[in-house]
Amino acid sequence: MKxxxxxxxxxxxxxxxxxxxxxxxxxxxxxAIGDIANxxxxxxxxxxxxxxxxxxxxxxxxxxxxxxxxxxxxxxTLPYDNFSPHQDIISERLSLLYQMPQLVSxxxxxxxxxxxxxxxxKSFLTRHALVVKKxxxxxxxxxxxxxxxxxxxxxxxxxxxxxxxxRGSILDLFPMGSHQPLRIDFFDDEIDTIREFDxxxxxxxxxxxxxxxxxxREFPTDADAIxxxxxxxxxxxxxxxxxxxxxxxxxxxxxxxxxxxxQPLFFDEMETLFDYLPDNTLVISVGDLEQAGxxxxxxxxxxxxxxxxxxMRPLLSPKSLWLDTDEMFSRLKPIPRIMLTDAExxxxxxxxxxxxxxxxxxxxxxxxxxxxxxxxxFCEQFSxxxxxxxxxxxxxxxxxxxxSRIKLRPQVCHSVYEALDAPSRVTLIIGPAENGFILEDAxxxxxxxxxxxxxALRSVAVAMIKKPPSAVKPSSGLWQSxxxxxxxxxxxxxxxxxxxxxxxxxxx
Length: 508
Known about the structure:
With 508 residues, the protein is of the alpha/beta class.
C-alpha cells in the first residue's frame, strides 16, 4: 500500500501535458518527487542538470517514498577520453537497460548529459541475455563459448564484473548486473548448483535457483560484429596499417581503451534512452536542462576539435554519439512531464507555487544563557507536528540527549509517514534529507530544518510540521506564502508536545 501524499496540490498530467511546481525550498523538492512517485501508476524518470544533483536527490528521495530509486550511471569519462568506463559502471548500466522496458514503478534518475547519449539497441540485449537455471541441460564448454561471445574475459581468479574462470566441473563468473560473483557446479552436462561466493575468500555462500547473464560490454565482440565494425570503419575513415591504430587493434580483437566512443560502428543503428521507457512513464525535470545540455554538447564539440587530428584514433562526430537539445525536447514533448523549481512560477494554468517557506534562524548560540532557546521557542509556539531527521542511529541518540535539555522527548519513528500518523506532535526519524523547510500545503503539512553552526546540532537535518486543516485557508490562484509570524500559534507548550509520546531514553 502506497503512503498518503503529503502535498495535496500535486496533480498528474496526461500525455503531452506539462505541470510546473514552484517554490520548492530545501528538501521539499525531494518530498515532491517522492509524493509524485507514490501516486503515479508507473515508473518515473527524473532528469537533473548534473550528476551531483542526481546523486543527492537519490539519497533524499528515499526518505519520502518506499519505491525503488536509482541513478542510471554516466560513463564517468570526458567525451572522447582515451580510457574506458569501469566495469562496475558498465554492469550497472546494462542491468538498468535490461530492466527499464519492464518497469512498473520506481524512480530512475538521469543527468541530462546521460539522457542525450545514444545507446545500444534493445534488440541486442534481448538476443544476448541468457537465463541459466539449476537443473538446466547445458555443457560447461557451451557456456564458456557463450561467455566468450558475450565479451567475458577468462582469468585465473574472478574478482571483477565481466570475468570468468573454470576448473574441473566448476565455473566461476561475475555476471554484469550482479552484486556478487557466482559459482556454477556441473554434473556432466547438467547444472547441479548455483551459489554466490566471496571473491576475497573464494568461499561459497548463498545458493540460488537461476541467474540472468547479460553481455559484458555495451556492444558485441563476436567475429561477425568485428567484421561489421571493420566495414563501417572503412566507410568513414582510412584503414591504417599501424598496429597501434584503433582499426588494427579491433581487427585483432584487442579492444583499445576508450573503444566506447566508436560504439556506433558495431551496430546498424543506435537507439536512445527514450526507446527504453515504458509507455506509462512520467517525466520530472529539475533545473535548467536546456542550458546544461547545451553546455555539455559545447564541451563535447571542443574536445572533438582538439582530438580529431590523431590519425591512429580518428573520431566519430558528436552527432553520432549524442542527441542535440532540440531532439531531446522533441522526444520529451509527448510524455507527461512535471517541472520542479525552487523559484516561484507565474500563476497560469498548470503552474502552482507550493506553500513552502524557509526556516527561521534556529542556530544554537552558546553566548546566550539558553543556547537552544530559539529552537525551544519555535517548538513551543508552533501548533503542528515537528519531525526531526538525523542521518544515523548514533546522531539520533546524541540529538535525543540534546533535546532532553529543553524538555523535548520526541517519539522515535521509522519513516516520515509513520511520523505524520504518530500520536506525538514531536517525532524523530533517520534519513538523508539535507535541507529543511516549512511546508503549508493546504493546511496539510509543514517541514522545518533547525540549523546550527555548533557541532552539537549538525545531526539535525529536517523537522516536519503538520498543521490542522483549519489553520490554513487555501487561496485562489497562486499558493501564497504566509509570513512566519502569522502562521505560528502559541496554543501549544513544551509540555503539550509530550502528550502521546513514548519517551526515548537519552544517551548516557
